[in-house]
Amino acid sequence: MLNHQFTLSKITKDFQYLCGCELVAIFSQEKETLILTFDDGEMLHYVEVSILNKRDTIFIRTNFARAKSNVQDIFHEVKNEILQEVSLIHNDRIIHFKFVNRNIWVLLFGNGKSNIILTSSHNKVLDSFKNKKELLNTNYIPIKRDIYKLVDIEKNITLKEAINKSDFFFGKYYLNELAFRFKLDLSLKLSEISKEELIRIQNLSYQFKVECINSNIFCHLDVNSNIPLLSLIELNGYNVKSSFENISEAIQRKISQIHFVEDIEKEKAILATYFDKIIRLNINTVNKIKDLGDVNDRIAQSRQNAEILMSQTNLKVKSGDNLSTLDWNNRPINIKLNPKLNLLDNAQKYFNKAKGLNKENEILLKRLPEAENKVKFATEALEKLFNISTFDKIKEFKSEYISAKPENKNKIALNLESKFRKFIIDEKNTLYVGKNAETNDELTQKFAKANDIWLHARGVGGSHCVLKTIGGKAPTKESLERAAEISAYYSQARGGSYVPVAYCQKKYVRKPKGANIGAVIMQKEEVIMVEPKLN
Protein backbone atom coordinates (compact mmCIF):
# COMPACT_ATOMS: atom_id res chain seq x y z
CA MET A 1 0.00 0.00 0.00
CA LEU A 2 2.82 2.36 -0.93
CA ASN A 3 0.56 4.71 -2.90
CA HIS A 4 -2.56 4.23 -0.80
CA GLN A 5 -4.43 7.45 -0.17
CA PHE A 6 -3.93 7.12 3.61
CA THR A 7 -0.17 6.62 3.17
CA LEU A 8 0.08 9.66 0.89
CA SER A 9 -1.88 11.68 3.44
CA LYS A 10 0.73 10.87 6.12
CA ILE A 11 3.60 11.63 3.74
CA THR A 12 2.07 14.99 2.79
CA LYS A 13 1.92 15.98 6.44
CA ASP A 14 5.60 15.10 6.82
CA PHE A 15 6.47 17.24 3.79
CA GLN A 16 5.23 20.43 5.50
CA TYR A 17 8.63 21.11 7.07
CA LEU A 18 10.04 21.52 3.52
CA CYS A 19 7.98 24.66 2.96
CA GLY A 20 10.35 27.61 2.74
CA CYS A 21 13.20 25.45 1.45
CA GLU A 22 14.93 26.06 -1.89
CA LEU A 23 14.75 23.35 -4.59
CA VAL A 24 18.42 23.13 -5.57
CA ALA A 25 18.34 20.03 -7.81
CA ILE A 26 15.92 17.64 -9.43
CA PHE A 27 17.44 14.67 -11.24
CA SER A 28 17.08 11.04 -12.21
CA GLN A 29 19.71 8.32 -12.11
CA GLU A 30 17.47 5.25 -11.96
CA LYS A 31 14.67 4.13 -14.23
CA GLU A 32 11.39 5.90 -13.43
CA THR A 33 12.81 7.47 -10.25
CA LEU A 34 13.29 11.16 -9.50
CA ILE A 35 15.15 12.89 -6.65
CA LEU A 36 14.11 16.37 -5.48
CA THR A 37 16.84 18.04 -3.39
CA PHE A 38 15.81 20.83 -0.99
CA ASP A 39 18.11 23.17 0.94
CA ASP A 40 16.93 24.77 4.19
CA GLY A 41 20.13 26.84 4.50
CA GLU A 42 21.81 24.39 6.85
CA MET A 43 21.35 20.97 5.33
CA LEU A 44 19.92 19.14 2.33
CA HIS A 45 16.68 17.14 2.30
CA TYR A 46 15.84 14.55 -0.35
CA VAL A 47 12.45 13.48 -1.68
CA GLU A 48 12.42 10.30 -3.78
CA VAL A 49 9.58 9.76 -6.23
CA SER A 50 9.18 6.42 -8.01
CA ILE A 51 6.63 5.82 -10.74
CA LEU A 52 7.57 2.25 -11.51
CA ASN A 53 4.55 0.00 -11.92
CA LYS A 54 3.66 -1.64 -8.56
CA ARG A 55 6.22 0.60 -6.83
CA ASP A 56 4.60 4.02 -7.20
CA THR A 57 5.63 5.92 -4.11
CA ILE A 58 7.09 9.09 -2.62
CA PHE A 59 9.06 9.46 0.61
CA ILE A 60 11.78 11.47 2.39
CA ARG A 61 15.35 10.21 2.41
CA THR A 62 17.73 11.31 5.14
CA ASN A 63 20.69 11.11 2.75
CA PHE A 64 21.42 10.40 -0.87
CA ALA A 65 24.62 9.80 -2.83
CA ARG A 66 24.37 11.32 -6.30
CA ALA A 67 26.19 9.26 -8.94
CA LYS A 68 29.10 10.75 -10.85
CA SER A 69 27.75 9.60 -14.23
CA ASN A 70 24.49 8.56 -15.93
CA VAL A 71 22.58 11.30 -14.10
CA GLN A 72 19.95 13.39 -15.88
CA ASP A 73 18.98 16.79 -14.48
CA ILE A 74 15.44 17.76 -15.42
CA PHE A 75 12.81 20.45 -14.74
CA HIS A 76 15.44 23.22 -14.96
CA GLU A 77 12.70 25.87 -14.94
CA VAL A 78 11.90 25.25 -11.27
CA LYS A 79 15.46 25.05 -9.98
CA ASN A 80 16.30 27.50 -7.13
CA GLU A 81 12.63 28.30 -6.47
CA ILE A 82 11.24 28.34 -2.94
CA LEU A 83 8.63 25.76 -1.95
CA GLN A 84 5.45 27.51 -0.79
CA GLU A 85 3.02 24.70 -0.08
CA VAL A 86 2.57 20.92 -0.24
CA SER A 87 -0.91 19.40 -0.41
CA LEU A 88 -2.81 16.23 -1.29
CA ILE A 89 -5.26 17.12 -4.05
CA HIS A 90 -8.99 16.31 -3.90
CA ASN A 91 -8.50 13.37 -1.56
CA ASP A 92 -6.80 11.69 -4.50
CA ARG A 93 -3.34 10.27 -5.13
CA ILE A 94 -1.91 13.58 -6.38
CA ILE A 95 0.62 15.53 -4.35
CA HIS A 96 1.04 19.20 -5.31
CA PHE A 97 4.35 21.01 -4.69
CA LYS A 98 3.60 24.71 -5.12
CA PHE A 99 6.53 27.07 -5.80
CA VAL A 100 6.49 30.82 -6.45
CA ASN A 101 6.30 30.54 -10.25
CA ARG A 102 6.01 26.80 -10.88
CA ASN A 103 4.07 23.74 -9.77
CA ILE A 104 5.15 20.12 -9.57
CA TRP A 105 2.36 17.56 -9.60
CA VAL A 106 3.19 14.02 -8.48
CA LEU A 107 0.56 11.58 -9.79
CA LEU A 108 0.72 8.19 -8.07
CA PHE A 109 -2.22 6.38 -9.63
CA GLY A 110 -0.37 3.12 -10.35
CA ASN A 111 -0.97 0.74 -13.28
CA GLY A 112 1.31 2.77 -15.56
CA LYS A 113 -0.75 5.95 -15.10
CA SER A 114 1.65 7.66 -12.70
CA ASN A 115 3.64 10.70 -13.78
CA ILE A 116 5.45 13.83 -12.57
CA ILE A 117 4.38 17.04 -14.28
CA LEU A 118 5.91 20.53 -14.19
CA THR A 119 3.57 23.44 -14.90
CA SER A 120 3.66 27.21 -14.78
CA SER A 121 1.77 29.08 -12.06
CA HIS A 122 -1.14 29.12 -14.54
CA ASN A 123 -0.98 25.33 -14.96
CA LYS A 124 0.51 25.26 -18.46
CA VAL A 125 2.60 22.11 -18.84
CA LEU A 126 6.30 22.98 -19.21
CA ASP A 127 7.71 19.46 -18.87
CA SER A 128 6.85 15.97 -17.65
CA PHE A 129 8.69 12.83 -16.65
CA LYS A 130 6.51 10.65 -18.95
CA ASN A 131 4.40 11.38 -22.05
CA LYS A 132 6.11 14.73 -22.60
CA LYS A 133 5.07 15.09 -26.25
CA GLU A 134 1.40 14.56 -25.46
CA LEU A 135 1.32 16.91 -22.46
CA LEU A 136 3.67 19.76 -23.45
CA ASN A 137 1.89 23.16 -23.71
CA THR A 138 -1.45 21.71 -22.61
CA ASN A 139 -3.17 22.84 -19.42
CA TYR A 140 -3.03 20.48 -16.47
CA ILE A 141 -5.84 20.82 -13.96
CA PRO A 142 -6.47 17.82 -11.68
CA ILE A 143 -9.91 16.38 -12.24
CA LYS A 144 -11.89 16.30 -9.04
CA ARG A 145 -12.86 12.75 -8.24
CA ASP A 146 -16.57 12.05 -7.71
CA ILE A 147 -17.16 10.76 -4.19
CA TYR A 148 -20.39 9.76 -2.52
CA LYS A 149 -21.89 9.19 0.88
CA LEU A 150 -23.30 5.74 1.54
CA VAL A 151 -26.85 7.00 1.99
CA ASP A 152 -26.76 8.71 -1.42
CA ILE A 153 -25.49 5.76 -3.50
CA GLU A 154 -27.84 3.71 -5.69
CA LYS A 155 -29.35 0.75 -3.83
CA ASN A 156 -28.72 -2.01 -6.38
CA ILE A 157 -25.02 -2.48 -5.53
CA THR A 158 -23.36 -4.30 -2.64
CA LEU A 159 -22.09 -2.66 0.53
CA LYS A 160 -18.53 -3.44 -0.59
CA GLU A 161 -19.05 -1.67 -3.93
CA ALA A 162 -20.72 1.27 -2.20
CA ILE A 163 -17.89 1.78 0.30
CA ASN A 164 -15.37 1.62 -2.57
CA LYS A 165 -17.29 4.42 -4.34
CA SER A 166 -17.41 6.55 -1.20
CA ASP A 167 -14.86 8.99 0.21
CA PHE A 168 -13.31 6.44 2.58
CA PHE A 169 -10.63 5.12 0.17
CA PHE A 170 -10.13 1.95 2.22
CA GLY A 171 -8.95 -0.47 -0.42
CA LYS A 172 -8.81 -4.24 0.06
CA TYR A 173 -6.96 -4.62 3.38
CA TYR A 174 -8.49 -1.75 5.35
CA LEU A 175 -11.96 -2.65 4.10
CA ASN A 176 -11.55 -6.24 5.30
CA GLU A 177 -10.38 -4.92 8.68
CA LEU A 178 -13.45 -2.66 8.87
CA ALA A 179 -15.75 -5.60 8.10
CA PHE A 180 -14.01 -7.79 10.70
CA ARG A 181 -14.11 -5.20 13.47
CA PHE A 182 -17.75 -4.26 13.05
CA LYS A 183 -19.04 -7.60 11.74
CA LEU A 184 -20.26 -6.18 8.43
CA ASP A 185 -21.59 -8.36 5.63
CA LEU A 186 -20.04 -6.66 2.59
CA SER A 187 -22.01 -8.85 0.16
CA LEU A 188 -25.35 -7.35 1.22
CA LYS A 189 -27.01 -5.02 -1.26
CA LEU A 190 -27.79 -1.52 -0.02
CA SER A 191 -31.46 -2.22 -0.65
CA GLU A 192 -31.25 -4.88 2.08
CA ILE A 193 -29.84 -2.43 4.63
CA SER A 194 -31.95 0.13 6.48
CA LYS A 195 -31.13 3.82 6.27
CA GLU A 196 -30.36 3.88 10.00
CA GLU A 197 -27.90 0.99 9.61
CA LEU A 198 -26.24 2.71 6.63
CA ILE A 199 -25.78 5.85 8.71
CA ARG A 200 -24.25 3.74 11.49
CA ILE A 201 -21.88 2.05 9.01
CA GLN A 202 -20.96 5.44 7.57
CA ASN A 203 -20.12 6.82 11.02
CA LEU A 204 -18.09 3.73 11.93
CA SER A 205 -16.23 4.02 8.63
CA TYR A 206 -15.30 7.66 9.29
CA GLN A 207 -14.08 6.75 12.77
CA PHE A 208 -11.94 3.95 11.35
CA LYS A 209 -10.52 6.22 8.63
CA VAL A 210 -9.55 8.83 11.23
CA GLU A 211 -7.85 6.11 13.31
CA CYS A 212 -5.78 5.03 10.30
CA ILE A 213 -4.76 8.54 9.27
CA ASN A 214 -3.91 9.60 12.84
CA SER A 215 -1.79 6.52 13.56
CA ASN A 216 1.83 7.21 14.47
CA ILE A 217 3.12 3.62 14.32
CA PHE A 218 3.58 2.12 10.86
CA CYS A 219 3.71 -1.62 10.36
CA HIS A 220 5.26 -4.15 8.03
CA LEU A 221 2.86 -7.10 8.07
CA ASP A 222 3.62 -10.68 7.10
CA VAL A 223 1.43 -11.65 4.11
CA ASN A 224 3.19 -14.97 3.30
CA SER A 225 5.56 -13.18 0.95
CA ASN A 226 9.16 -12.02 1.01
CA ILE A 227 7.79 -8.49 0.62
CA PRO A 228 5.79 -7.25 3.63
CA LEU A 229 2.56 -5.28 3.53
CA LEU A 230 2.84 -1.65 4.63
CA SER A 231 -0.05 -0.63 6.87
CA LEU A 232 -0.79 2.36 9.09
CA ILE A 233 -2.35 0.06 11.69
CA GLU A 234 -2.18 -3.58 12.73
CA LEU A 235 -4.61 -5.75 10.75
CA ASN A 236 -6.35 -8.88 11.94
CA GLY A 237 -4.86 -12.10 10.61
CA TYR A 238 -1.42 -10.68 9.84
CA ASN A 239 1.63 -10.81 12.08
CA VAL A 240 3.70 -7.64 12.53
CA LYS A 241 7.21 -8.24 11.15
CA SER A 242 8.48 -4.78 12.15
CA SER A 243 7.16 -1.37 13.10
CA PHE A 244 8.37 2.20 12.52
CA GLU A 245 7.70 5.62 14.00
CA ASN A 246 8.43 7.33 10.67
CA ILE A 247 6.36 6.67 7.53
CA SER A 248 9.26 7.46 5.17
CA GLU A 249 11.49 4.96 6.96
CA ALA A 250 8.75 2.32 6.67
CA ILE A 251 8.41 3.02 2.93
CA GLN A 252 12.16 3.09 2.29
CA ARG A 253 12.65 -0.22 4.09
CA LYS A 254 9.91 -1.80 2.00
CA ILE A 255 11.42 -0.41 -1.22
CA SER A 256 14.77 -1.91 -0.20
CA GLN A 257 13.13 -5.28 0.33
CA ILE A 258 11.40 -5.03 -3.05
CA HIS A 259 14.77 -4.31 -4.71
CA PHE A 260 16.34 -7.19 -2.82
CA VAL A 261 13.63 -9.66 -3.83
CA GLU A 262 13.63 -8.45 -7.44
CA ASP A 263 17.41 -8.87 -7.71
CA ILE A 264 17.14 -12.41 -6.34
CA GLU A 265 14.27 -13.23 -8.69
CA LYS A 266 16.25 -11.92 -11.69
CA GLU A 267 19.19 -14.12 -10.74
CA LYS A 268 16.88 -17.10 -10.23
CA ALA A 269 15.19 -16.47 -13.59
CA ILE A 270 18.57 -16.60 -15.37
CA LEU A 271 19.46 -19.85 -13.61
CA ALA A 272 15.99 -21.31 -14.25
CA THR A 273 16.30 -20.55 -17.98
CA TYR A 274 19.64 -22.37 -18.04
CA PHE A 275 18.28 -25.51 -16.36
CA ASP A 276 15.01 -25.40 -18.33
CA LYS A 277 17.11 -25.56 -21.49
CA ILE A 278 19.02 -28.59 -20.18
CA ILE A 279 15.74 -30.35 -19.40
CA ARG A 280 14.14 -29.46 -22.72
CA LEU A 281 17.09 -30.58 -24.85
CA ASN A 282 17.64 -33.81 -22.98
CA ILE A 283 13.98 -34.78 -22.77
CA ASN A 284 13.92 -34.51 -26.57
CA THR A 285 17.00 -36.76 -26.68
CA VAL A 286 15.43 -39.27 -24.28
CA ASN A 287 12.19 -39.37 -26.27
CA LYS A 288 14.11 -39.81 -29.50
CA ILE A 289 16.17 -42.66 -28.09
CA LYS A 290 13.16 -44.39 -26.57
CA ASP A 291 11.24 -44.13 -29.82
CA LEU A 292 13.59 -46.14 -32.01
CA GLY A 293 10.88 -48.16 -33.75
CA ASP A 294 11.26 -46.22 -36.98
CA VAL A 295 15.04 -46.67 -37.01
CA ASN A 296 14.71 -50.39 -36.31
CA ASP A 297 12.21 -50.71 -39.17
CA ARG A 298 14.67 -48.96 -41.49
CA ILE A 299 17.48 -51.30 -40.38
CA ALA A 300 15.29 -54.36 -41.04
CA GLN A 301 14.19 -52.98 -44.42
CA SER A 302 17.78 -52.21 -45.51
CA ARG A 303 18.92 -55.71 -44.57
CA GLN A 304 16.00 -57.29 -46.39
CA ASN A 305 16.73 -55.19 -49.48
CA ALA A 306 20.37 -56.28 -49.37
CA GLU A 307 19.49 -59.97 -48.93
CA ILE A 308 16.90 -59.89 -51.75
CA LEU A 309 19.42 -58.27 -54.07
CA MET A 310 22.02 -60.89 -53.12
CA SER A 311 19.53 -63.63 -54.04
CA GLN A 312 19.24 -62.38 -57.61
CA THR A 313 21.11 -63.93 -60.54
CA ASN A 314 23.67 -61.99 -62.56
CA LEU A 315 24.81 -59.82 -59.62
CA LYS A 316 27.34 -58.06 -61.82
CA VAL A 317 24.55 -56.64 -64.03
CA LYS A 318 23.31 -53.06 -63.66
CA SER A 319 19.49 -53.05 -63.36
CA GLY A 320 18.49 -49.40 -63.67
CA ASP A 321 16.81 -47.20 -61.03
CA ASN A 322 14.85 -49.93 -59.24
CA LEU A 323 14.09 -53.60 -59.00
CA SER A 324 10.52 -54.89 -58.72
CA THR A 325 10.32 -58.34 -57.14
CA LEU A 326 8.80 -60.23 -54.21
CA ASP A 327 9.92 -60.07 -50.56
CA TRP A 328 10.37 -63.15 -48.35
CA ASN A 329 6.60 -63.21 -47.73
CA ASN A 330 5.84 -63.19 -51.46
CA ARG A 331 4.57 -59.61 -51.36
CA PRO A 332 5.45 -57.17 -54.13
CA ILE A 333 8.43 -54.96 -53.29
CA ASN A 334 10.18 -52.20 -55.18
CA ILE A 335 13.86 -51.69 -54.27
CA LYS A 336 15.48 -48.41 -55.28
CA LEU A 337 18.87 -48.81 -56.93
CA ASN A 338 21.79 -46.64 -57.87
CA PRO A 339 21.81 -47.09 -61.68
CA LYS A 340 25.56 -46.58 -61.77
CA LEU A 341 26.11 -49.65 -59.58
CA ASN A 342 25.47 -53.34 -60.25
CA LEU A 343 23.21 -55.48 -58.02
CA LEU A 344 26.11 -56.69 -55.88
CA ASP A 345 27.32 -53.15 -55.15
CA ASN A 346 23.74 -52.00 -54.47
CA ALA A 347 23.33 -54.90 -52.04
CA GLN A 348 26.56 -53.92 -50.29
CA LYS A 349 25.30 -50.34 -50.10
CA TYR A 350 22.13 -51.54 -48.30
CA PHE A 351 24.22 -53.73 -45.94
CA ASN A 352 26.36 -50.70 -45.11
CA LYS A 353 23.26 -48.59 -44.54
CA ALA A 354 21.86 -51.17 -42.09
CA LYS A 355 25.23 -51.34 -40.36
CA GLY A 356 25.41 -47.55 -40.08
CA LEU A 357 21.88 -47.28 -38.70
CA ASN A 358 22.62 -50.02 -36.20
CA LYS A 359 25.77 -48.23 -35.05
CA GLU A 360 23.77 -45.02 -34.68
CA ASN A 361 21.29 -46.95 -32.56
CA GLU A 362 24.05 -48.21 -30.30
CA ILE A 363 25.44 -44.69 -29.84
CA LEU A 364 22.00 -43.33 -29.00
CA LEU A 365 21.35 -46.10 -26.48
CA LYS A 366 24.66 -45.33 -24.78
CA ARG A 367 23.58 -41.69 -24.51
CA LEU A 368 20.28 -42.58 -22.81
CA PRO A 369 21.61 -42.82 -19.19
CA GLU A 370 23.54 -39.58 -19.66
CA ALA A 371 20.48 -37.74 -21.01
CA GLU A 372 18.24 -39.13 -18.24
CA ASN A 373 20.81 -38.09 -15.62
CA LYS A 374 20.93 -34.58 -17.05
CA VAL A 375 17.14 -34.30 -16.82
CA LYS A 376 17.23 -35.60 -13.24
CA PHE A 377 20.08 -33.26 -12.31
CA ALA A 378 18.43 -30.16 -13.81
CA THR A 379 15.02 -31.01 -12.31
CA GLU A 380 16.59 -31.35 -8.87
CA ALA A 381 18.35 -28.01 -9.39
CA LEU A 382 15.09 -26.26 -10.32
CA GLU A 383 13.34 -27.67 -7.25
CA LYS A 384 16.10 -26.31 -5.00
CA LEU A 385 16.18 -23.01 -6.88
CA PHE A 386 12.46 -22.47 -6.29
CA ASN A 387 12.94 -22.29 -2.51
CA ILE A 388 15.97 -19.97 -2.51
CA SER A 389 15.35 -16.55 -0.95
CA THR A 390 18.83 -15.15 -0.17
CA PHE A 391 21.99 -14.37 -2.13
CA ASP A 392 24.02 -16.64 0.16
CA LYS A 393 21.82 -19.56 -0.86
CA ILE A 394 22.21 -18.61 -4.53
CA LYS A 395 25.97 -18.64 -4.07
CA GLU A 396 25.80 -22.10 -2.48
CA PHE A 397 23.50 -23.25 -5.29
CA LYS A 398 25.93 -22.07 -7.98
CA SER A 399 28.80 -23.74 -6.20
CA GLU A 400 26.88 -27.01 -6.13
CA TYR A 401 25.36 -26.99 -9.61
CA ILE A 402 27.36 -24.66 -11.87
CA SER A 403 30.86 -24.73 -10.45
CA ALA A 404 32.48 -26.66 -13.31
CA LYS A 405 33.62 -25.15 -16.59
CA PRO A 406 30.84 -25.11 -19.22
CA GLU A 407 32.53 -27.64 -21.46
CA ASN A 408 33.05 -30.10 -18.59
CA LYS A 409 30.19 -29.48 -16.16
CA ASN A 410 27.85 -32.12 -17.57
CA LYS A 411 30.53 -34.79 -17.37
CA ILE A 412 31.44 -33.78 -13.83
CA ALA A 413 27.99 -33.13 -12.44
CA LEU A 414 25.95 -35.76 -14.22
CA ASN A 415 28.06 -38.76 -15.20
CA LEU A 416 30.21 -39.43 -12.14
CA GLU A 417 27.69 -41.87 -10.71
CA SER A 418 28.55 -44.49 -13.34
CA LYS A 419 32.20 -44.54 -12.18
CA PHE A 420 31.43 -45.99 -8.74
CA ARG A 421 30.07 -49.22 -7.31
CA LYS A 422 26.47 -48.65 -6.30
CA PHE A 423 24.53 -50.44 -3.54
CA ILE A 424 20.87 -49.87 -2.72
CA ILE A 425 20.85 -50.03 1.09
CA ASP A 426 17.09 -49.53 1.36
CA GLU A 427 14.39 -47.44 -0.32
CA LYS A 428 15.83 -44.18 1.07
CA ASN A 429 19.59 -44.83 1.14
CA THR A 430 22.16 -45.56 -1.58
CA LEU A 431 25.86 -46.25 -1.02
CA TYR A 432 28.52 -45.34 -3.59
CA VAL A 433 31.95 -46.99 -3.37
CA GLY A 434 35.16 -45.88 -5.10
CA LYS A 435 37.02 -48.45 -7.23
CA ASN A 436 40.55 -47.04 -7.00
CA ALA A 437 42.50 -44.00 -5.79
CA GLU A 438 41.33 -41.89 -8.73
CA THR A 439 37.63 -42.67 -8.33
CA ASN A 440 37.98 -42.33 -4.53
CA ASP A 441 39.11 -38.77 -5.17
CA GLU A 442 36.24 -38.03 -7.56
CA LEU A 443 33.70 -39.62 -5.23
CA THR A 444 34.79 -37.48 -2.28
CA GLN A 445 35.77 -34.22 -3.96
CA LYS A 446 33.23 -33.94 -6.79
CA PHE A 447 30.30 -36.31 -6.29
CA ALA A 448 29.58 -36.18 -2.54
CA LYS A 449 27.52 -33.30 -1.11
CA ALA A 450 28.28 -31.57 2.19
CA ASN A 451 25.69 -33.47 4.28
CA ASP A 452 26.24 -36.93 2.76
CA ILE A 453 27.73 -39.55 5.10
CA TRP A 454 31.36 -40.39 4.26
CA LEU A 455 32.75 -43.78 5.43
CA HIS A 456 36.15 -45.50 5.38
CA ALA A 457 37.62 -48.53 7.16
CA ARG A 458 39.72 -47.08 10.01
CA GLY A 459 43.48 -47.46 9.96
CA VAL A 460 43.76 -49.47 6.72
CA GLY A 461 43.67 -48.82 3.00
CA GLY A 462 40.33 -49.08 1.29
CA SER A 463 37.62 -47.49 -0.78
CA HIS A 464 36.03 -44.16 -0.02
CA CYS A 465 32.30 -44.68 0.50
CA VAL A 466 29.47 -42.13 0.39
CA LEU A 467 25.97 -42.77 1.72
CA LYS A 468 23.26 -40.61 0.14
CA THR A 469 19.82 -40.32 1.70
CA ILE A 470 16.66 -39.20 -0.12
CA GLY A 471 15.40 -35.97 1.44
CA GLY A 472 18.69 -35.29 3.20
CA LYS A 473 17.59 -36.90 6.50
CA ALA A 474 20.10 -38.75 8.67
CA PRO A 475 20.19 -42.51 7.93
CA THR A 476 18.84 -44.98 10.47
CA LYS A 477 21.22 -47.02 12.61
CA GLU A 478 20.43 -50.11 10.51
CA SER A 479 21.17 -48.30 7.24
CA LEU A 480 24.44 -46.94 8.63
CA GLU A 481 25.55 -50.41 9.81
CA ARG A 482 24.77 -51.91 6.41
CA ALA A 483 26.79 -49.17 4.66
CA ALA A 484 29.68 -49.70 7.12
CA GLU A 485 29.71 -53.47 6.43
CA ILE A 486 30.16 -52.81 2.71
CA SER A 487 32.81 -50.17 3.44
CA ALA A 488 34.74 -52.71 5.54
CA TYR A 489 34.41 -55.31 2.78
CA TYR A 490 36.05 -52.96 0.26
CA SER A 491 39.11 -52.45 2.47
CA GLN A 492 42.34 -54.27 3.30
CA ALA A 493 40.62 -55.54 6.46
CA ARG A 494 38.10 -57.61 4.48
CA GLY A 495 39.27 -60.83 6.17
CA GLY A 496 38.77 -59.59 9.75
CA SER A 497 35.95 -60.66 12.04
CA TYR A 498 35.11 -57.14 13.12
CA VAL A 499 36.45 -53.95 11.56
CA PRO A 500 36.23 -50.36 12.83
CA VAL A 501 34.69 -48.05 10.22
CA ALA A 502 35.01 -44.30 10.67
CA TYR A 503 32.24 -42.03 9.39
CA CYS A 504 31.19 -38.37 9.40
CA GLN A 505 29.41 -35.86 7.17
CA LYS A 506 31.39 -35.19 4.00
CA LYS A 507 31.82 -31.51 4.94
CA TYR A 508 34.23 -32.65 7.67
CA VAL A 509 36.47 -34.43 5.16
CA ARG A 510 39.21 -32.37 3.53
CA LYS A 511 42.09 -33.00 1.17
CA PRO A 512 45.41 -31.53 2.37
CA LYS A 513 47.23 -29.32 -0.10
CA GLY A 514 49.65 -31.40 -2.17
CA ALA A 515 48.27 -34.72 -0.89
CA ASN A 516 48.31 -37.82 -3.09
CA ILE A 517 45.23 -38.85 -5.07
CA GLY A 518 42.64 -40.33 -2.72
CA ALA A 519 44.32 -39.04 0.47
CA VAL A 520 42.05 -37.13 2.85
CA ILE A 521 41.77 -36.10 6.51
CA MET A 522 38.63 -36.44 8.68
CA GLN A 523 38.16 -33.46 10.99
CA LYS A 524 35.36 -35.12 12.95
CA GLU A 525 34.62 -38.82 13.08
CA GLU A 526 32.61 -41.50 14.79
CA VAL A 527 33.43 -45.20 14.69
CA ILE A 528 31.20 -48.23 14.28
CA MET A 529 32.33 -51.90 14.58
CA VAL A 530 30.96 -54.16 11.83
CA GLU A 531 31.57 -57.47 10.10
CA PRO A 532 32.86 -57.01 6.51
CA LYS A 533 30.25 -58.39 4.13
CA LEU A 534 28.18 -57.62 1.06
CA ASN A 535 25.04 -59.63 1.88
For this structure, the quaternary state is: single chain
Unreliable runs = 404-414
* Through-space gap between termini: 65 Å
Biggest beta sheet summary: 6 strands, antiparallel
**Order of the strands making up the biggest sheet:** 16-17-19-18-20-23
Report the β-strand fraction as a percent range: 15-25%
Shape annotation: elongated
Total number of beta strands: 23
- What is the radius of gyration? 38 Å
pLDDT averaged over residues: 86
Query: Please, how many helices?
Result: 12
Structural class: alpha+beta
Instruction: Bin the helical content.
Output: 25-40%
In short:
With 535 residues, the chain is an alpha+beta fold. The chain is 37% helix and 23% strand.
Can you walk me through this structure?
The protein has 535 residues and is α+β, with helices and mostly antiparallel strands. 37% of the residues lie in helices and 23% in strands. The protein is built from twelve helices and 23 strands. It has helices spanning 5-14, 132-135, 159-165, 171-182, 195-214, 247-290, 293-310, 343-386, 391-401, 409-414, 437-447, 477-489; strands spanning 22-30, 33-39, 44-52, 55-61, 72-73, 83-88, 94-99, 102-107, 115-120, 125-128, 218-221, 229-231, 240-244, 322-326, 332-336, 421-426, 429-433, 453-457, 465-469, 499-505, 509-510, 521-522, 526-530. The strands form six sheets. Strands 16-17-19-18-20-23 form a six-stranded antiparallel β-sheet. Strands 4-3-2-1-5 form a five-stranded antiparallel β-sheet. The longest helix has 44 residues, at 247-290. The protein is elongated, with a radius of gyration of 38 Å. The two termini are 65 Å apart. Mean pLDDT is 86; it is low at 404-414.
